[in-house]
Write a structure and sequence with these properties.
Blueprint lengths: L1 E6 L3 E8 L3 E8 L8 H11 L11 E6 L5 H14 L4 E6 H10 L4 E6 L3 E6 L4 E3 L5 H4 L5 H13 L5 H11 L3 H10 L3 H6 L2 H6 L4 H17 L12 E4 L1 H5 L1 H10 L4 E5 L3 H12 L1
Parallel strand pairs: 1-4, 4-5, 6-9, 9-10
Antiparallel strand pairs: 1-2, 2-3, 6-7, 7-8
Length: about 280
């Protein structure tokens, strides 16, 4: 059996492939090594893997995850996977490579992620050849769920949100400044916490305020990141992620305004990623 995983900062989607045909899916929490260590991943997997999954029967694990970049981050995840799937050959790669493989297969092109965080690359059909650093949750990630969530929280706490939306925001989340700050600075996974508020913009997407907030975030994503790629307009913009998919109309408008044609926009890469791996072994 082969196990393929798309690991975001918030959620990991897994697919078990048997006999190269049968597919079954399940979910666990996300395992971003910036926020969790090897023992934490092991504990979570032991608690959240389906009880019917025969871990000793897994022969290969292909795990793609957020922030799996440095040798130390790769080792954090590899060690966890090897501890749980003891008979498996383990490959751990960046979620950006998963996005490129899902969106482009073995064809060259441009791929991006717009989910809890954001990332992008030029891909030559086998590997990533150019990446403009999104700078992550603290310094960048323009256009991401975390970026949208931070903007909403700032406007809410500063009283700069339109009155009607401010009231709905307060009713929806029932959180005042002290509780918000406590979650941000005294609890794990602050990136997940702020990204969770992006749903408010989607739920109120007919409001001019939310439309402008999303459009401005995507415009910053293009101006600060995408336009930094040489000859970026020669590529088709392809994107994976819940934020890009949920706001795909606004994303398409911004991409077009920056002179970039839009290709494939999907919510999650797992189905296309599994197909990529099955094609590679067929």
């Amino acid at each position: 059996m082969i196990l393929i995983a798309d690991g975001g900062s918030t959620k990991t989607t897994w697919c078990v492939v048997e006999a190269h045909t049968s597919r079954s899916f399940f979910h666990t929490e996300g395992y971003n090594p910036e926020f969790i260590d090897t023992l934490g991943i092991i504990a979570s997997l032991q608690q959240n893997l389906p009880t019917t999954l025969a871990t000793a029967a897994i022969t290969e694990v292909h795990y793609y995850g957020a922030s799996v970049v440095s040798a130390l981050q790769v080792a954090t995840v590899v060690n966890a996977m090897q501890a749980v799937f003891t008979q498996a050959r383990v490959f751990v790669g960046h979620d950006l490579l998963a996005a490129a493989r899902a969106l482009l297969g073995q064809e060259p092109g441009f791929a991006a992620i717009l989910g809890t965080g954001t990332n992008s690359c030029v891909y030559d059909g086998a590997r990533i050849t150019h990446n403009v650093d999104s700078l992550g949750y603290f310094l960048g990630d323009e256009g991401s769920g975390a970026f949208l969530g931070k903007a909403l929280l700032r406007d809410y706490l500063r009283g700069q949100m339109p009155a009607r939306l401010e009231g709905e925001f307060r009713t929806t989340y029932n959180m005042e400044r002290e509780a918000i700050m406590d979650r941000l600075y005294n609890h794990p996974f602050p990136n997940r916490f702020v990204a969770s508020f992006a749903k408010f913009a989607y739920d109120h997407s007919s409001a001019t305020y939310c439309q402008q907030l999303v459009a401005e975030a995507f415009d910053l994503f293009f101006r600060n990141i995408i336009t930094q790629y040489p000859a970026y307009q020669a590529y088709t913009f392809n994107c994976v992620g819940s934020v890009g998919y949920s706001f795909r109309d606004a994303l398409t408008q911004v991409a077009t305004a920056h002179g970039m044609a839009v290709g494939k926009i999907i919510r999650a890469p797992i189905d296309d990623l599994v197909s990529y791996h099955l094609a590679a072994v067929s």
